[in-house]
Design a protein that fits this description.
Elements lengths: L5 H17 L18 H13 L4 E8 L4 H19 L4 E9 L2 H6 L3 E5 L18 E9 L10 E4 L3 E3 L9 H4 L2
Parallel strand pairs: 1-2, 2-4
Antiparallel strand pairs: 1-5, 3-4, 5-6
Amino acid sequence: MTARGSVHSVFDDVLAAIAPIVGLENVQSTGRVTELLIGNGSVITEYLADLLVQARTEVLFSTCFWASSTSLSLLHDALLALNSRTRRESRRVTVKVMFSSYSFRQKFLSFRGTRIWEPSTWQQLGLPAPEMLDALDMTVVSRFKKPFGVMHDKFLIIDRSSVILPSSNISCISTICGR
């Protein structure tokens, strides 16, 4: 790190990237640990998916690397289940999905920085088609900026009351995860 305080500027850069999505003015800095889960990426994503389906008003989901995987299939199915439940209850849930990188090619060729994915592109990311998510107000954003553009955070915030800080990405392939 340089004397200019690169750690601070990188942190500020990440906050600036997620601020329009998360609403940083609403972030609180207190809490308590109520549970600890230890497992591989698939086990952790199963846990996250179960919590995601229970959301009443809002889901904020962030991960670093995004790829076709068992974990992504679990997230896909959880979004469908959340949509189904929300539609039955005649409600809407806001879902914001954020990730950093989605391919090794992107790391070498992309200069895009922040990208808001159009609903017509969600399926190429392994997410359900937008017409299958008619009870969700969903936004999908990726943030990767060279040369050190990885947004490494991983979190799931449900209804601004439960925060889960997993350690795995949505890229756990079945042979590594034991499935």
